[in-house]
Write a structure and sequence with these properties.
Layout (H helix, E strand, L loop, with lengths): L3 E11 L23 E3 L15 H10 L14 E8 L9 H13 L4 E4 L8 H12 L3 E4 L9
Parallel strand pairs: 1-3, 1-4, 2-3, 4-5
């Protein structure tokens, strides 16, 4: 089984990623231009730590590639990859399609090969649709959540 995809950048569009997490720190992508680990599209800054009460972005990054065989936490689907934090959800887990589009464009222009988007939208958005199509045209795999959100989430 292949456990390393160290040359692959996966953009996690969510609430940010706690980039100091013991199972994630060694897998964080580093932007060569500013030394950051991604984008906070809510503020336009590189501060992208997961500040949500649910920690959903950190959870998703762990499912994708929490470091294995370190005697701590869990092991993700891939043990080694590069996780790009794209914060498009506020600490209360809300986002506007325009903000998500900014993260998709950031991921596309900064070398992501996979975009994980674990969210849904109650409305149609031309900007979000255009960003997804641009990512597809660039050869990026776009992974979206499916199904109904459980009550109480």
């Amino acid at each position: 089984m292949l456990t390393s995809a160290s040359n692959i950048v996966v953009a996690v569009l969510d609430t940010g990623i706690r980039y100091t997490h013991e199972d994630l720190a060694s897998n964080m992508w580093v932007n060569p231009d500013d030394g950051g680990h991604g984008l906070n599209a809510l503020t336009g800054s590189t501060i992208r730590n997961d500040d949500s009460s649910s920690g959903h972005g950190t959870l998703m990054a762990g499912v994708i590639g929490g470091v294995g065989n370190n005697g701590k936490g869990v092991t993700g689907v891939r043990g080694k990859y590069n996780s790009m934090a794209c914060k498009c959800f506020s600490s209360s887990n809300t986002a506007a399609p325009r903000i998500s589009s900014l993260c998709i464009d950031y991921a596309r222009t900064n070398g992501a090969r996979v975009i994980n988007a674990s969210f849904s939208s109650p409305s149609n958005s031309i900007s979000l649709s255009n960003a997804i199509f641009s990512a597809r045209d660039a050869g990026i795999i776009f992974v979206a959540s499916a199904g109904k959100r459980p009550s109480g989430y």
